[in-house]
Amino acid sequence: MGSAFARRLLGAGLQVSVWDPSGAGAARLASAGARVAATPEDAVRDAGVMLTMVPTIASIEETVPRALAALPQSATWLQMSTIGLEGTDRAIALAKAQRPDVVFVDAPVSGSRAPAEEGKLLILASGPAAALDALAPIFSALGQKTMRWERAGSGSRMKLVLNTWLAVLGEGIAETAALAQSLDVSLNDVSTCIGSTALDAPWALSKLDKIERDAFDPDFALALAAKDLHLALDAAKEANRRLPMAQSIATQWDGALQAGLGNRDVVGAYLALTADNHN
User: How many helices (H) and strands (E) does the chain have?
Assistant: First the structure.
C-alpha cells in the first residue's frame, strides 16, 4: 500500500522521499522518481507532510519518534495506517508529547491493492479543517472520495466499522462457496444468480470469482484482515458491546492463519474450510 501511495503521489507531480525498514520496498521506488532516504530522519528532514503507512502501532512507536525529531516546524503528520482506536490514541499522544507544533491527521483508507494503484481508495480523513484542506492534493491523488471529520480519530473509528462489514462479506462468500462445492453447485451460476437480485455485492462477487479461479494471490491479505478485525473486536470490548458474528469469524480466521494461509487473499479462508479437498 505504501508503495502504491508513493507512485500515485509521484504521478501527481509531488516530491516524495521514501524510507522502509527493509530497504527493498523503498529502493524499488527510485526508478519512479522517489528520493530514497537512508534513515527516517533523512526522509522527513525537508518535508511539509510526513505520511505513515505501516502494519501496527508498534511499528510507529519504533520509528516515528526519530522522524518527529527531524520534522520541520509546524509540519503535518498524516497517519494513514490501520492501527485501531488505542493505537490512534497512542499516536496522537506521541505527537503531542514530542512535537506539539506538528498537526496530526488520522486518515486510514478503505480499499485494497488495485484501488490503491488506481487512485480509487475511500479516504477517511479526520483532523483540523485547515489541515484537511491543505492535504487535498494528496487525497485527490490517492482516492476517489474523501470523507471528513474534524475530530482526529474519527477516521479510524469508521475504518473499524467498514472492516467489520468486510469480514462479514469475506467469510460469508467463503462459506457460500464451500457450501456450493459440497452441493455440486456451479460458482459461476451462484454469481449470476446473486448478481441478478437485490443481494448483489460487487466486491463479494469479485471474491467468489477468485475462489472459482483458484486465485488466492492477495489483494488484501488474510493476516491483515484478521489483524484489523481483532482491532474492531478490541474496540467493541472497550465499549461493552458484543459482536458474536465478528468473534466467530475472527476465531475461524485465526485457525486459517495457523494453517499457514495468512499470505493468501482474505477469501483464503475458503481454503481452511475445504482443506481436505485441497490436500
Answer: 15, 8
Give residue-wise pLDDT tens across range 49-80. Answer: 999 999 999 999 999 999 999 999 999 999 99
Give the single-character DSSP code of 31: G
DSSP string, 204-273: HHHHHHHHHTT----SSBHHHHHHHHHHHHHHHHHTT---HHHHHHHHHHHHHHHTT-TTSBGGGHHHHH
DSSP secondary structure string for all residues of 160-171: HHHHHHHHHHHH
Q: Residue 39 gets which letter from DSSP?
A: S
**Whole-structure pTM value:** 0.93
d(CA 169, CA 27): 36
Cell readout for 44 is 522527513
Contacts of 153 (CB under 8 A, 6+ apart): 85, 88, 89, 92, 106, 126
